[in-house]
What we know:
The protein is α/β, with parallel strands linked by helices. It has a domain at 8-183 and 216-221: TIM Barrel. It has helices spanning 15-28, 42-52, 75-86, 107-119, 133-143, 162-171, 190-199, 203-213, 225-232, 241-248; strands spanning 8-9, 32-34, 60-65, 91-96, 123-129, 148-154, 174-178, 217-218. 46% of the residues are buried. The mean pLDDT is 97.
Amino acid sequence: MSIPSFGVGTFRLTGQTVIDSVRTALELGYRAVDTAQIYGNEAEVGQAIADSGINRDELFVTTKIWTENYAKNKLVPSLRESLEKLRMPYVDLTLIHWPAPGNGVELSEYMTALAEAKVLGLTRQIGISNFNIELTKQAIAAVGKNEIATNQIELSPYLQSRKLTSFLKEQGITVTSYMTLAYGKVLKDPVLAQIANKHQATVAQVALAWALQLGYAVIPSSTKRENLASNLLARDLQLDADDMTKIAALERDGREVNPAGLAPVWD
């Protein structure tokens, strides 16, 4: 089992908008779809997948458990509800969405409950999201290093988190990058624009190619067919060493998502 390197995200997309986005992505060749309980769009994602007619075993579907469902008596039932909404007997990957330190449920409790969901066949793989190094170590201690498929974290040319990503690589845990375009802020970057011009590519393609070349999985979202199609071309873009060095220099700790009460103390 492994994590697909390229998928479509659905954060902030709801209703017909998310149905259209996922449907278009699947038409264009995407086969990995990322959703979450808190997004409020699992049913619509499930509808788009069902309408596509694509065999379930050709798809890789990820969802994430929300904080209110972390207790051991709630996690599995909440995942069963997600599966009903998604219209499928299992998901390929289930993540703990945020560590939410101090929310009253111990990390060992929700990680053990997540591992139970895998044993029950509700999810093929399990993982974490938005965990720092120390909390990742605790998750490993709870369920075993080989059980954690990925840590999905915010990464972009402006937030490169080298200490955390290096640790994850050492542990054999795949890094999944979200917010790779930093809410679109990197699209205006002159350094990235220069690299894009050099390769006759878009700035979005350059940012996504940067993440892919570092070995990260990416899950960009869009409501526009042309952007969904264009993003896919990042898989064919090869940045050279000079490009990667210039992008490395863009690091500025530019974190976009850091909700109080949910996020850890970052490395």
